[in-house]
Amino acid sequence: MPYIAFTDVVRSYGAGVTQINALDGASFAVERGELAVILGASGAGKTTALNILGGMDGATSGQVVVDERDISDANEDELVLYRRADVGFVFQFYNLVPNLTALENVELAAQICPDSFDAAETLGKVGLGERLDNFPAQLSGGEQQRVSIARALAKNPKLLLCDEPTGALDYQTGKQILQLLQDTCRREHITVVVVTHNAALANMADRLIRFKSGQVIDMEVNPDPQPISQIEW
Ligand code: ATP
């Protein structure tokens, strides 16, 4: 059984003539420890799929199994536990708490996690050891994204879900963030799913999943994923 088995998932919004199928029978699988890239144009259903994978939204039909657990069949209490214990999220616009420092943002996440966690050490690992006491507004976009990655890692997650993590960053900073995500996947043996519009990122992936109009139109395993430093776009 793959780590993620996303099978024939439909997610509808609205009803009757205004109904939209954001997902329209999407299926894909990801193995444990892989870095998967979900690629597709705007409106293809990528974020919807990521939200369902993270237990933040439910499927209208279909089955979603993560680590042998059927989350499409889970009740709200089980989903809360799943989100807290297993899943880290990284968003395009970081979603940090503005009146907390970098350290406090990460500590806040660490509070709801069962394992002991050293927030300062993790901020050091993402390259922010010197900026612990800065508030988000005092940090650059790339630094804020590093805080958000440290916050996601506070859960000691098995699955890291990243929605356009470089969408708000310039080219060089975006590359550094992608390198950090790739290194984190390799070093911590976490399964990482990155949603993007950027076709060049196919080269960094162990597995590439292409979305179009709510469906998966192609899924390829990449035998030779490249370090970000070697990818240009
Ligand atoms: P983008 O790259 O622009 O973020 P995406 O591939 O992530 O796009 P989704 O955000 O998953 O696409 O949206 C897929 C489709 O579902 C779009 O047509 C979108 O307008 C629609 N949709 C998503 N969420 C909702 C919602 N809450 N209510 C109604 N329609 C929605």
Description:
By secondary structure, the protein is of the alpha/beta class. The chain has one domain (32-60, 81-230): P-loop containing nucleotide triphosphate hydrolases (Rossmann fold), CATH 3.40.50.300. Helix content is 29%, strand content 27%. The protein has six helices and ten strands; from the N terminus they run E-E-E-H-E-E-H-E-H-H-H-E-H-E-E-E. The strands form two sheets. The protein has a six-stranded mixed β-sheet, sandwiched between helices. It has a four-stranded antiparallel β-sheet with strand order 2-1-4-5, covered by helices on one side. A hairpin with a 6-residue loop joins strand 1 and strand 2 (20-30). Helix 3 runs parallel beside helix 5, helix 4 (119-125) crosses helix 5 and helix 5 packs parallel to helix 6. The protein is globular, with a radius of gyration of 17 Å. The model has no long low-confidence stretch (mean pLDDT 94). The structure holds adenosine-5'-triphosphate. The site of adenosine-5'-triphosphate (ATP) has 12 residues, from strand 2 and helix 1. Pfam families: ABC_tran. InterPro entries: AAA+_ATPase (IPR003593), ABC_transporter-like_ATP-bd (IPR003439), ABC_transporter-like_CS (IPR017871), MacB-like_ATP-bd (IPR017911), P-loop_NTPase (IPR027417). Belongs to the ABC transporter superfamily. Residues 4-231 form the ABC transporter domain. One of its GO terms (molecular function) is transmembrane transporter activity.
